[in-house]
Design a protein that fits this description.
Shape: globular
Helix content: 25-40%
Number of helices: 14
Number of strands: 24
Oligomer: single chain
Number of domains: 2
CATH architecture of the largest domain: 3-Layer(bba) Sandwich
Strand order of the largest sheet: 7-6-5-2-1-8-20
């Protein structure tokens, strides 16, 4: 084996994390001895877990669990907090802007993994950056929750019916799995907030679901899973969601959004789930790309024309094993591609031929709220509570670090889920210096409260569990 083989991973998404995990499991002794070295370059110093999007938005899980620090994940790798500027294949090197030193560094490699991922696609929509919200960008879920809380707070303080209606009108744009998850769980979150804010009981909020197709969830429609589509429609109808199909978002304003069919709807909260676009490098790459800018790959997940450059996830165009379609751009496929890349690099280092990417797929799933989900698993369709719990177990299994699994399970077992946005703490906090909503006791109202007893039990020193007092997040 060649001494000091250097593997360079670009990005800290699913592809890089799972390629790293597989490399450590297959080349552990060589990594420990220094024969194989791994370096990871990323603009973020943490891995963002994009499973449980709806649960994070609805507050079933604290947003801090979305992030796993690189120091916890990459215990056997060198980490460079910076941005890859260009790939120089002829020199077997990558130019990197180091955020800590502010200098441009040249990092050589024997094997390169391009897993730079994607960001929310604004699709050139005017007002998206100023007023729109996205769930995939950095702090995206936290921003959504803050905006929702700010809107409810504003409605609580206003006496103008038009202002209240605009504040309590929410739009979700996008007809894919992310869109329906956000839509269903937004309704769940607003229902939880209604136990704290009486304005949500006096003035019912409106949730709009905007998508361009005649039918939402085209993945299900193409696969013939009509029962799952019907379940989604029934659940959204029960929640009172207003579906606006065959409509595209034209512009987002400070207090309204406009559609291409001429409709202009008052709203201060527009959450866009209209897909992603890849993160481009600062300079053109020497690789073959498709019209979307994704790297063309071989069946072994190598960049076409190169034997030591690998790619997967959103940044790559990977063909399905059938050869008839592309692999979907979602977390599971990126995880499986990262695993195969790690294994193939290990095989190449050991002088073996890399293997084809042969994962056929498992299915698809989406959550619409607590105990409400759709699941297609190897062609078998499930809905409701069973689908939700299977999905829960699946996502827990793929969380990047085992310590997060226990925290997530404890969070799901909490009787209330309206904790503060404090970066992942499970402590319910009360701040006496901040604004207190008009409903001070966040416990749901009961019609027949228990009568007071004549001889109440004396108070003990054991502290009572305190529920959150939501403050104005703006």
């Amino acid at each position: 084996m060649k001494k000091n083989t250097h593997i360079l991973l670009l990005g800290l998404g699913y592809v890089s994390v799972w390629a790293y995990k597989n490399l450590v499991s297959t080349l552990g002794p060589q990594i420990k001895s220094g024969e194989v070295q791994i370096t990871v370059v990323s603009t973020s110093d943490y891995h963002a877990f994009h499973g449980f999007t709806g649960e994070f938005l609805a507050g079933m899980l604290p947003v801090g669990l979305r992030r796993t620090p690189q120091a916890k994940l990459l215990t056997k790798a060198n980490f460079v907090h910076g941005k890859a500027l260009s790939i120089r294949q002829e020199e077997q090197a990558v130019l990197v802007q180091n955020f800590h030193s502010g200098k441009t560094e040249r990092i050589e490699f024997d094997h390169l993994v391009v897993g730079i991922g994607s960001v929310d696609n604004d699709a050139g929509i005017p007002g998206f950056r100023e007023y729109g919200l996205g769930v995939k960008k950095e702090n995206g879920i936290a921003e959504c929750r803050k905006r929702i809380l700010a809107a409810v707070e504003a409605a609580s303080k206003s006496l103008d019916p038009k202002q209240i209606d605009a504040a309590l009108s929410f739009a979700v744009v996008g007809g894919g799995f992310a869109g329906i998850e956000v839509c269903g769980n937004l309704c769940e979150y607003l229902r939880e907030l209604s136990t704290v804010y009486s304005i949500l009981r006096k003035h019912a909020p409106k949730v709009y679901w905007v998508h361009p197709g005649e039918e939402a969830l085209p993945q299900l429609a193409e696969g013939g899973f009509s029962s799952l589509l019907r379940y989604c429609k029934r659940q959204l109808e029960k929640e009172g969601v207003i579906t606006l199909s065959q409509a595209r978002l034209k512009e987002i304003k400070a207090s309204a959004f406009e559609l291409d069919n001429g409709m202009c709807i008052p709203s201060r909260t527009v959450i866009c789930c209209i897909g992603q676009k890849i993160v481009p490098l600062a300079s053109p790459t020497p690789f073959m790309t498709d019209l979307k800018g994704r790297m063309e790959t071989s069946p072994q997940l190598q960049a076409v024309g190169y034997c030591n450059i690998w790619a997967g996830g959103d940044a790559a165009r990977v063909m399905h094993i059938s050869g008839k379609k592309e692999c979907r751009a979602d977390a599971l496929w990126a995880i499986k591609q990262g695993r195969r890349i790690g294994r193939n690099i290990a095989r190449s280092i050991k002088g073996k031929k890399p293997l084809r990417f042969s994962f056929p797929g498992m299915g698809q799933t989406a959550s619409l709220g607590m105990n409400k989900a759709i699941l297609e698993l190897y062609g078998i369709c499930l809905t409701g509570r069973l689908a939700w719990w299977i999905r829960l177990g699946f996502f827990l299994y793929y969380m990047p670090h085992r310590s997060q699994v226990g925290k997530a399970i404890r969070a799901f077992l909490q009787p209330r889920r309206l904790w503060e946005l404090d970066g992942g703490s499970f402590e319910f906090q009360v701040s006496g210096s901040e604004h207190i909503p008009e409903t001070r006791n966040p416990k749901p109202e009961t019609r027949n409260p228990k009568p007071e007893t004549r001889n109440p039990k004396p108070e003990t020193s054991k502290p009572k569990r305190s529920y959150p007092i939501l403050s104005n997040p703006v």
